[in-house]
Amino acid sequence: MKKLVKAPIYFYRKFISPLTPPSCRFFPTCSEYALEAIEVHGPIKGTWLATKRICKCHPFHKGGVDLVPPSKHPKSQT
């Protein structure tokens, strides 16, 4: 499921992003944030977090460092 949700992001990064000048106001970039959010929180919550992040990406937002919040359910380290 994660691969299916990540596929459009990889498509964007490979074919669309190179055609536009770098303009992301955030670190990490929105596509990096989306991939990490999906990996950490799963496809549903990760997509929601990525959507909220993309909605902040406009000229009236100052941008800056905006990291993916940690999962409330850490994976066991056994």
What is the tally of helical segments? 3
Strand percentage, roughly?
5-15%
Mind describing the biggest β-sheet?
2 strands, parallel
Helix content: 40-55%
Contiguous uncertain segments of 5+ residues: none
The backbone outline, from C-alpha atoms, is globular
Given helix and strand content, the structural type is mainly alpha
Q: Give me the strand/helix succession.
A: HEHHE
Distance between the termini: 24 Å
β-strand number: 2
What strand line-up does the widest sheet have? Answer: 1-2
**Rg on CA atoms, Å:** 13 Å
Mean pLDDT: 89
Short account of what is shown:
This protein has 78 residues and is mostly helical. The protein has helices at residues 2-16, 30-41, 43-55; strands spanning 26-27, 64-65.
